[in-house]
Amino acid sequence: MITKEDKLRIIDEFKRSEGDTGSPEVQIALLSFRIKYLTEHLKEHKKDHATRRGLFKLIGQRKGLLKYLSNVDIERYRELTSKLQIRG
């Protein structure tokens, strides 16, 4: 799972201002980290369907946040997707 140090590092990297923990960029980055972790877990445990369902829920959440960000500010969206190396 995500450790406290990893979470703080991700927040520091993607925050927009001091004390920012809830901007779409931070939320998407944290979800992306969890998605990568669960994807690696499922490569080893192919029959873990409960985790697979949770992964799909996280992907849906991230997709919604990405859609929101693209509607609000397309430049922030493009910068974030290139930084995270995800398709938009």
UniProtKB/TrEMBL annotation:
SUPFAM superfamilies for this protein: S15/NS1 RNA-binding domain (SSF47060)
Gene Ontology biological process: translation
Keywords carried by this UniProt record: Ribonucleoprotein, Ribosomal protein, RNA-binding, rRNA-binding
Coiled coil: none
GO cellular component labels: cytosolic small ribosomal subunit
Keyword Cytoplasm: no
GO molecular function, one term: rRNA binding
Function: Forms an intersubunit bridge (bridge B4) with the 23S rRNA of the 50S subunit in the ribosome.
Family: Belongs to the universal ribosomal protein uS15 family.
NCBIfam families in UniProt: S15_bact
Complex and partners: Part of the 30S ribosomal subunit. Forms a bridge to the 50S subunit in the 70S ribosome, contacting the 23S rRNA.
Name of this protein: Small ribosomal subunit protein uS15
UniProt source species: Parvimonas micra ATCC 33270
